[in-house]
Amino acid sequence: MSGNGVVWGRVRSRLRAFPDRLAACGAEVRSRQASMAPGGRLRKDLCAQEFEALRSCFVAAAKKTLTGGH
Amino acid sequence: MHLQTASLLDMLRLTRFPPRWRRPPAAGVPAKNVGFRKVASGVSSLGSASPRSLNIFDRDLKRKQKNWAARQPERIKFDYLKEEVGSRIADRVYDIARDFPLALDVGCGRGYIAQHLNKETVGKFFQTDIAENALKNALEMEIPTVSVLADEEFLPFRENIFDLVVSSLSLHWVNDLPRALEQIHCVLKPDGVFIGALFGGDTLYELRCSLQLAETEREGGFSPHVSPFTAVNDLGHLLGRAGFNTLTVDTDEIQVNYPGMFELMEDLQGMGESNCAWNRKALLHRDTMLAAAAVYREMYGNEDGSVPATYQIYYMIGWKYHDSQARPAKRGSATVSFGELGKINDLMSQGKKSQ
Question: What CATH number was assigned to the domain covering residues B59-323?
């Protein structure tokens, strides 16, 4: 189980799937950016709503690929 | 490439630096090693070994990162940037109408410059790097090379030896850049030339800004993820201070498009350019990464969906002083005064007549 770089390889393969899932959420990405450019001071959780939308879309895409026999 | 011990001992000055110049210990190391570092900076006779001992980067970690990167099965696919800069440096070497019997490559990686040069221009090449795997997996080249494991700040060579010193994209991880440049100046022969390439201040600004915005919004604050780079005016001062003459600094911007931020980060790691600054944050949250990728795409993305990353490179050329080099004229040697500038036409026709 613990061979050379097995854990790293596993974690990396999860990370490598990020871009594909991100691609599936294009609309949320755009709305998030729009809300992040208010011109005023950037505070924590200024765009929390948009981020949650992005995140849930991401998780949905991840679930799809996982159940799709990953 | 092979290590020649007999002729190496002529070149190496083991008496000048402590024998273990391979592993200069960094700060944050247990107390028993601290004495080492003091000895190293004490023995050095260069007057400007700074008492404040700049320590921004973890050199041990940088060596590990470079070793790891050089050992990857797919390392060739991360070579593109260093190949390109290496070939541009080789261009500059060719531009100089001279041959160099003995050359040194400081921080050579897997040898990106040497493979673009030919045997007529450079007789023999010394490749130095802190990562042994990089030297072991070096690219094929026609010039005879000798590989030496050495840190850029602690060059183990005698003075006035090399005709040419090159350095491609490795001095930006050096802690004490003035000292490294002074050492390079030292090992150069008079009328020798140093050609170097460094990453400049605008490098990866898109990544830096996206991470900063995302981290501020997600976590309420941000920490530096891209290492600090030298400013172009400082480069000129540094080279001058190190004793170089006839300086030239020019800048180049290479923009590479990536499918997204994650691919960019993966490539940076594959190149061995991961952050190793002491003040780096060890953890980057998934949420922050996701947010940063979104910001990156929206702020800087191209129409086709890819994102650009800018690499700003500063090329510097400096010469070691020699009597044959051009010098400014002596004070008081002027034959014409500025006040006579209005009569320049007469003066020029006078000159022509006397010829």
Answer: 3.40.50.150
